[in-house]
Amino acid sequence: MPVPAISKSKYLSGLQCPKLLWVYYRAKDWIPPVDAATQAVFDQGHVVGELAKQLYPGGIEVPWDTDLPTTVRKTKALLKQRVPLFEASLLGGGVYARADILEPVGRGQWDLIEVKSTGKVKDIHIPDLAAQRYCYEAAGLYIRRCHLMHIDTQYLLRGNPDPNRFFQCEDVTDQVDAMLPEVPRRVREMRKTIGQEACPEVEIGPHCSDPYDCPLTGRCWKAVNSRPHSIFTLYRLGAKKTWALYAQGVLDNAQIDEGTRLSGNQQIQIEAERTGQLQINKPAVRSFLERLYYPLQFLDFESFQTAIPLVQLTRPYQQIPFQFSLHQLVSSTARPRHFGWIWDGSGSPFDAMLEQLRACLTDQGAVVAYNASFEIARLREAAAACPTHRKWVEAVIDRTVDLLEPFRSFDVYHPAQHGSASMKSVLPALTGQDYAGMAISDGGMASQAYLTTFYGNAPQAAKEQTIKDLEAYCGQDTLGMWDIVKALGKLVRKP
Ligand code: SF4
Q: How far apart are CA 367 and CA 207, in angstroms?
């Protein structure tokens, strides 16, 4: 197979893992389709890129043509106009680059500007720019400076988004230049990798999620996950020393035990993995359950966050609550009562949420949330926006109990959790219930559905369906918490 030029995004993949690079060029069908959450990240990047273009009036977008050579020819023609170019496409040194912005400066020189939807310059941005600089210079351009344009996370939306205040631009030329000499060698190695017939053998490791979650994780980690004692699950739960032993090629039981001793209270998890049975520290779980007093209230929030704020007086990536579900039980034998709220998009979501919550939450009883730090943070942010509710919010937080606690501390562990203490793993493991078949089955889908419907001018019928789907999903979360509590109660009941 003739080896193609490496695009800068594949150059970054090649830095992360040669196997991933090879798969992109030789076995693309191994790459699973992009999920909704990842697509949402890409979409955010696109929207931010569009806003950045407003900073360069008179700039010209180089359209992607039918093929790369034609697009490169068009770019070369436009370069002569000496105006800012968006997505200028050039081939050079075996690399293909399409910079976000090329700005003409000085005598025949250009500044290279990469726009990122992050709140700061990250390490991975430097090789990204180095690959582009290398490509453009090999193609004959004189690049003067390299800039990284990122979001100012302290930006507060007032009126329409203002790109002059939304972005911060940092000169990263020195860092890029320091990395530039290694680019040609890396490109040569990568092209060699792509040219080989066999997929490179690469051990799994921390690089699988650094700097990005690798799309092949499911495939590569599957084999490890099926090994005895599931080293995979130990790693996912943070047994770093056990992981270190595994990484050294240590796999026998004695050495896993050693790793376990080093990682402390994961003995219960190891035992569950070995026996295939649920393991529980009954005194600890009993004392946790004693903190849950009636009327019990199970609370769950859904929120969205966007790079460019959609709500006035909020900041980039601020969590905006748009829904809550509350199941309330006055006694262990009572039927749970359900309350819910979905923001209609008008006024302040913080005010609307707190008003509605105050109307249904009782003044007594434990408020139970799963991974409660999320709910507590949303409550505090809402109180900061609506100070008249602050005292009430702090009183609610004081009686909030985190149902994640017994799972995070390994006081209870079921092998069917597969190394995860999240609600989506614990609920099916302990109760047999799951989210299969639901139109919305996780928080990412919920926020996407909300944004698409409420900010995408969806027709009324679609809106009504989304509301039903959101209610079903969030309601399952809060009712599921009650079912987990009941399951824990059964497990620790004295005979
Ligand atoms: S999952 Fe890990 S080993 Fe497999 S291709 Fe990705 S980075 Fe490489």
A: 39
Which ligand 1 atom minimizes the distance to the CA of 217? 1
Q: Per-residue pLDDT tens for 100-157?
A: 999 999 889 999 999 999 999 999 999 999 999 999 999 999 999 999 999 999 999 9
CA 303 to each of CA 193, 289, 369, 454: distance values in angstroms, whole numbers, following the listed order: 43, 28, 15, 13
Please choose, from the candidates 176, 212, 163, 170, the residue with its C-alpha nearest in 3D space to the C-alpha of residue 49.
Answer: 163
What digits encode the pLDDT tens for the residues 77-102? 999 999 999 999 999 999 999 999 99
Q: 377 pLDDT exceeds 90?
A: yes
Query: How close is the Cα of 4 to the center of ligand 1, in Å?
Result: 22
Q: Ligand 1 centre from 21 Cα, in Å?
A: 10
- The set of protein residues with a Cβ atom below 6 angstroms from ligand 1 is 16-17, 19-20, 202, 204, 207-208, 214, 216-217, 220
Atom of ligand 1 at shortest distance to CA of 19? 5
pTM of the model: 0.85
- Sign, CA dihedral 50-52-54-57, equals negative
Question: Do the strands 367-369 and 337-342 form a parallel or antiparallel pair, or are they unpaired?
Answer: unpaired
8 A C-beta contact, residue 5 and residue 94: yes
Task: Delineate the domains of the chain, giving CATH numbers in brackets.
Answer: 6-195 (3.90.320.10), 227-277 (no CATH), 286-492 (3.30.420.10)
Which atom of ligand 1 is closest in space to residue 18's alpha carbon? Answer: 8
Q: Is 456 exposed, middle or buried (0-12, 13-18, 19+ CB in 10 A)?
A: exposed
State in Å: Cα 67 to ligand 1 middle.
30
Taking CA atoms, 177 is separated from 10, 96, 147, in Å, by 20, 19, 12
pLDDT confidence tier of residue 222, bands split at 50, 70 and 90: low
